[in-house]
Design goal:
Arginase, Chain A; four-stranded mixed sheet; alpha/beta; three-stranded parallel sheet
């Protein structure tokens, strides 16, 4: 068998969603990448098949009704679709490359991998300016792009609760945590602006957390898996 025949095919997954963000425009990033590829003369998007996940961006035109988890029903619907598509792609022995808008889509990406390999221990390397560990109980903004890792870990962080979410928000938050499936190994590279947020990581097993205070008085954190 040749090396070429052993390489799994790539499938590009486009998620042009921005309902989890606080400002508009992230859904345009995918097309910007495609245009840049054309300008560069890259055949990347011609070589590989693409599937687009239907967004819930129509909710941007409707009033926000869940103040501590904005558009949470749409976030759930979108990530459930994305997770199922990722699981399907992996089931076909293909490699998904996800191009997405706001970061709430990370929940569906990671959950889909777990769906495909339910008996495996999943590892995630999270390189971000933020840990995305807020919940409806702790968020200062209600924007759900700051919550995907809390969903995946099944973490409410009620010890630091400052909000009282309504019943519908709690219902869909529990659904999102169930979709997240709770089981990951985790490596975190991010800036943590408040040392109390480190307590959010208490349920990640067999990990070491190292951090140092930067000139901007942030905590730069590395969560290392032994």
């Amino acid at each position: 068998m040749s090396t070429k025949s052993m390489i799994k095919p790539i499938k590009i997954v486009e998620v042009k969603s921005e309902i989890g963000a606080g400002t508009r425009g992230s859904s345009m990033g995918i097309d910007a990448i495609k245009i840049a590829a054309l300008d560069f003369g890259s055949p990347f998007f011609k070589r590989f098949k693409t599937v687009e996940i239907p967004s819930e961006n129509h909710l941007l035109l409707e009033p926000v009704v869940n103040d501590y988890a904005k558009r949470i029903k749409g976030i759930y619907n979108l990530n459930e679709r994305l997770a199922k598509e990722i699981a399907k792609i992996l089931g076909k022995e293909e490699i998904p490359i996800v191009l997405a808008g706001d970061h709430s889509s990370a929940l569906g990406t990671i959950s889909g991998i777990k769906m495909a390999y339910p008996d495996k221990r999943l590892g995630v390397i999270w390189i971000d300016a933020h840990a995305d560990l807020h919940s409806p109980y702790t968020t200062p903004s209600g924007n759900m792009h700051g919550m995907p890792i809390a969903c995946i870990l099944g973490e409410d962080n009620k010890e630091r609760q400052q909000n009282k979410p309504d019943d519908e928000t709690i219902e869909y938050w529990e659904k999102l945590k169930e979709l997240g499936n709770r089981t990951i190994l985790f490596t975190l590279l991010c800036a943590i602006t408040n040392p109390r947020k480190i307590t959010l990581l208490k349920n990640i097993r067999s990990a070491y957390l190292l951090y140092r205070r930067s000139a901007k008085k942030q905590l730069n954190a590395w969560l290392l898996i032994p």
